[in-house]
Amino acid sequence: MLVRFNLTVTAPPEISGLSNSDLQRLVLKLLSENAEQKRAIAELREEIARLKGLKGRPDIKPSGMETGPAPRSRVKRAGRRGRGAVTPRVSIEEMILPAAVPPGSRFKGYEDFVVQDVVLRVRAIRYRRERWVTPDGRTVIAPLPRGVTGHFGPELHRFVLAQYHQGQVTVPRLVDQLRAIGVAISKRQVMRLLIAGQDDFLAEARDVLRAGLRTGSWITVDDTGARHKASNGFCTQIGNDDFAWFGTTGSKSRLNFLDLLRAGYTDYVVNDAALSYMRERALAGPVIARLAAHPDKQFADPAAWQAHLAQLGITACTITPDPVQVATEGALWGSIRSHDFLREGVIVSDGAGQFAVGQHALCWVHAERLVHKLDAFTDHQRAAQQHVRSLIWQCYADLKDYRTTPTPWRRVQLRARFDYIFCRHTGYVSLDRLLRRLHANKAELLAVLDHPDIPLHTNGSENDIRCQVTKRKVSGGTRSDVGRDCRDAFLGLAKTCAKLGVAFWDYLGSRLAIPGQPIVPNLAHLINQRAQPA
C-alpha cells in the first residue's frame, strides 16, 4: 500500500521589518503549526502500523529495583529531633562583608552564610589574689573563681575528660595534642585530671544505677572481657532506654552479678524475697529454717554476714548445693528487694547463667543464633535448618506486632505457635536436640506475652558495651581501682547523657562549674522524671 503525503511549503515572510507584536504573533503561529504537524505524523505512524499488522507500543511498568521497597513507617521517638538542617547550638556572631560594586548600584539586603568553627588556643591566667591582715592578726586571701581547683582550668579539664572518654583518645596522644596546642602538661598531670577528685562523678554514676533499677520496668544485661592490674576480668553492663552503667570486676558469677545489682549498698538482708530465692535454688530446708527463725535479719557488711553463717553452723555444712553460696545469693537478692530495686523489673539477657535471677527473659536473637550456627552436612539437614530459622523469624515478627497490640487471644495463639516450632521432629539429630533445649526455656522466651513492654533482644546492651570494648582495645587495661572506677563511671555517664538527650560536653561543663554553661540537672533526677506518668 502506498501512502502519499502532501506537504505545502510556503516561503517565509520578510521579518526584518516586523514590529515586536507582529514577531510574537508569528512565533505563536509557527509553534501551533509545529504541534499540529507532530500530531499528524504520530497519527500516520499509528495508521501505518495498523495496516501492516504491527503491535502498538508495549505497556511495560517501570522496574522497582532502583527505588527499593517502601520505607517502613516508624513512630518518631519522643524527645528525638528529626533530620534536617544543622542548627548551631551556640549563639551566632554576625559579620557584615562589604561587596565591591559600581556607582549607582542598589542595595538589596544580605545573603546569609553560616560557618561553624572551633578555636583551640591556650589561655594562661595569673590570678593576683589580694592578701589582707585583719586587726586581730588573721590573713585573708581572695578566693579563686568558682570551678578553679588546681593549676589547670575547668575548660582544659572538660576537654581532657571528653577526649579520653567520649573521643576514645589515648593518654599519650592526648598529651601530644595538648602540647601541640601550647599547654605545658605532662602525662602524669593528665592522669590526675582523669582520675583525681572524681568522687562527685562516681556518686552520680551510682545514683544513675539506683534510679534505673527503681524506675525501670526492664533492664538488659551483658558482659565482656576486661583487664585490670594485669589480670583478666569482666565488665558487666546494666541498662535500658534511659540509662547505662558499667562495672568491672574479677568475676562473672551470679554472686558478682547480684552484688552489682545492689548498686553500692553492702548489706545482706534475710526477708521473704531472700527465703523464696533460697527455696527456688533447692537449699536444704533445715538451713532455711535456721535463717528464718533467727531474729537478726539485716547485716551491714560481708564480715557480719559470714560471722552469722558461722554462728548458725551453716559454714560447716557439706551438702549440695553449697549452703553458704545459695544463702549468700539469697541474702543479696533480699538486699536488692529491700532497696526497691527490680520490684517489677524483668532482666533480659543472652542466656548466660549468672543473669538468671528474678523475672528473667531471654534474647530471641541469641536463641536463633544457636540454630544458625549448627553445622549442616546434607541437603536434608540444610533444608530443615533453614525451615526452622524461617519459622523462628516469623514468630519473632508476630511477637513484635504483639508488643504494640497485645490481646488475650493472640497470647494463646503465640504460645501454640511456639510449641509448633520447638516441638517438631526434623530428623536432624543436633537440630532436634537444640529445639528441645530451647523449648525448655519457653517461659523465658515468651516473657514478652506477660510483659509487652520488654524488648525481644539485648541489642541495646551490646550497643552500649561497645564503648568498653573499644576502650579496652585502644587503651588497654587499668592499673588502679580508682582508674577502673572512673573509666566505668564516665563511659556510663556519657551513654546515659546520650539516652537522655543531654550533650556530654554540656554535662561536663555544668559539673565543672564552667561560667556561662547550661545547667544540667542530676541525671538520676532526669531518669526519675521520665518514669513519672504524664
Write up this protein.
- The N terminus is likely disordered.
- This protein is of the alpha/beta class.
- Among the domains are: 140 residues, no CATH class; 93 residues, no CATH class.
- Helix 2 runs antiparallel to helix 19 and helix 6 runs parallel beside helix 10.
Secondary-structure map:
Elements: H1 20-52, E1 131-133, E2 139-141, H2 154-166, H3 171-181, H4 187-195, H5 199-215, E3 218-228, E4 231-239, E5 244-249, H6 254-261, E6 268-269, H7 272-280, H8 285-293, E7 298-299, H9 302-311, H10 323-338, E8 346-349, E9 359-362, H11 364-372, H12 379-404, H13 408-422, H14 429-439, H15 442-445, H16 459-464, H17 466-475, H18 481-500, H19 504-511, H20 523-531
Parallel strand pairs: 3-8, 8-9
Antiparallel strand pairs: 1-2, 3-4, 4-5, 6-7
- Total of helices: 20
| Helix-strand topology string | HEEHHHHEEEHEHHEHHEEHHHHHHHHHH
The low-confidence parts are: 1-11, 62-71
Radius of gyration: 36 Å
Oligomer: single chain
In the sheet with the most strands, the strands line up as 5-4-3-8-9
| SSE-based structural type | alpha/beta
Which range does the strand content fall in? 5-15%
Distance between the termini: 83 Å
Query: How much helix, percentage-wise, in residues?
Result: 40-55%
The shape, in one word, is flat
User: Count the strands?
Assistant: 9
Biggest β-sheet strands, sense, barrel: 5 strands, mixed
